[in-house]
Design brief:
Radius of gyration: 20 Å
CATH topology: Immunoglobulin-like
Order of helices and strands: HEEEEEEEEEH
Shape: globular
CATH class: Mainly Beta
CATH superfamily: Immunoglobulins
Largest sheet: 5 strands, mixed
Structural class: alpha+beta
Number of helices: 2
CATH architecture: Sandwich
Distance between the termini: 61 Å
Helix content: 10-25%
Length: 153
């Protein structure tokens, strides 16, 4: 086998091993009740991730390039009974490359929140704190979507 053939074989084997070991990145965190609504990236050992009152049923939407017109929703989900969530992000290089993302979190009876941040590495978590209060009513969101559909045909 010639030197160039060995190089090609090595490159193919290396690429296959790297791609075969890849798994989907998961943005993980918890949503809790608090005095002010905000989103923060914290260390996985942060005590606020296990303490407090977790909020079940909050909806989450994750967008790449949130400040651009060509933004893309890459994940959505709902928090579980203890407020924990896991959003799979099936984008090339997620967790390795730097992605600017926007997270939007809402729950009925709570003031929603949104934040733009860099997609954190797997060892970090997202802490979402929501305060009780008036968030957007479901009918307001539906009305906005209806207006969008009506004017953008």
């Amino acid at each position: 086998m010639s030197r160039s053939q060995r190089f090609v074989v090595f490159a193919v084997v290396l690429a296959a091993s790297l791609l075969g070991g890849c798994s989907t990145y998961k943005l993980q965190g918890r949503i809790v009740d608090g005095q002010v609504s905000y989103i923060s990236v914290v260390d996985a050992s942060d005590p606020r991730l296990v303490g407090g009152y977790g909020l079940e049923g909050a909806t989450l939407e994750l967008w790449t390039d949130p400040d651009r017109i060509n933004r893309k929703r890459v994940a959505q989900g709902v928090s579980d009974g203890d407020g924990y969530f896991e959003l799979p992000v099936d984008e090339i290089g997620a967790g390795l490359l730097e992605y600017d993302v926007g997270l939007n979190v809402r729950r009925h009876g709570y003031a929603g929140t949104q934040q733009t941040f860099r997609l954190p590495p797997q060892r970090r978590r997202v802490l979402v704190v929501l305060r009780r209060g008036d968030g957007p009513r479901d009918t307001e969101v539906e009305d906005l979507m209806e207006e969008y559909r009506r004017f953008n045909r």
